[in-house]
Amino acid sequence: MILPIVAYGDPVLKKKGTDITKAYPNLDTLLENMFETMYNAYGVGLAAPQIGLPIRLFLVDTAPFAEDKDFTAEEQDVLKNFKRVFINAKIVKEEGDEWAFNEGCLSIPDVREDVFRQPKVTIDYVDENFKAHTETFEGLIARVIQHEYDHIEGILFTDKLSSLKKRLIKGRLANISKGKINVDYRMRFPNQKKKR
C-alpha cells in the first residue's frame, strides 16, 4: 500500500526516533508499504518519520543511481544491487574529507541543495530479521545512509545549510508545509487548510 509522505513542517520530522523490537506490530507489512511508497515517489531512501512514525527505521535502494553514466561499471553494479533495511541504526564513525553533493528529499519536494558530508560511514544496525551488523560504507551509498539516518535523528538536509541558503529557500519551505506544491505522489501536509 502506498502511504502518504509527510511534508516539511510536520513535527514528526523533527523527533528523534525510538528503537523498536522484533515484536513491533506488522513490521513485514510496514516494510513492504515503505518500499512501495519509496518506489512510487522515485526515491532511493525512506525513513519511518517520513510516513509519520517516530521510530528508528529506514530503508535504502540505490539502484536508480546505477543508471548514471558518471560511475564506472563496477560502481554501477554495486549501486544497482544495494538494497537494505536499517533498524535501530547508530552511526559509530564518519571519516574522510567532506564533499558536496546535491541532495533532495521526498518530504521537501522541488528543493535541492549542496550538502557537505564525509565520504565514509560505519554503522551498527539490525536488519529486517533482527540480525545485528556493523558495516562500513563509502561514496554515494554512505551519503544516502547518512541522509536517511539524519531523519531518525530528527534532522533534515535543510538543517545543514548555511543561514543564507536557509533564508533563500524559506518561502519555498513555507509553501511546502501549506501544501502549495504539485507533486506526483501522495503527501500529507501539516498546515494545509481544510477544504470546506
Would you mind describing this structure in some detail?
- This protein has helices spanning 27-40, 73-80, 139-152, 163-177; strands at residues 5-6, 45-47, 57-61, 83-95, 99-105, 108-117, 120-126, 132-138, 187-188.
- Strand 5 (99-105) and strand 6 form a beta hairpin.
- It has 196 residues and is of the alpha+beta class.
- 26% of the residues lie in helices and 29% in strands.
- The protein is globular and about 40 Å long.
- Strands 2-3-4-7-8 form a five-stranded antiparallel β-sheet, sandwiched between helices.
- It contains four helices and nine strands; from the N terminus they run E-H-E-E-H-E-E-E-E-E-H-H-E.
- The chain has one domain: Peptide Deformylase.
The assigned CATH architecture is Alpha-Beta Complex
Largest sheet: 5 strands, antiparallel
Helical stretch tally: 4
- Spatial order of strands in the largest sheet: 2-3-4-7-8
CATH C-level label: Alpha Beta
Number of domains: 1
Along the chain, the helix and strand elements come as EHEEHEEEEEHHE
Helical residues, percent:
25-40%
CA-based gyration radius:
17 Å
Classify the beta-strand content into a percent band: 25-35%
Q: Structural class, judged by helices and strands?
A: alpha+beta
Shape field: globular
What is the CATH superfamily classification? Answer: Peptide deformylase
| Poorly predicted tracts of residues | none
For the terminal residues, how far apart are their CA atoms? 28 Å
Kindly report the average pLDDT value: 95
Active site: 148
Protein name: Peptide deformylase
Catalytic activity: N-terminal N-formyl-L-methionyl-[peptide] + H2O = N-terminal L-methionyl-[peptide] + formate
Organism: Flavivirga aquimarina
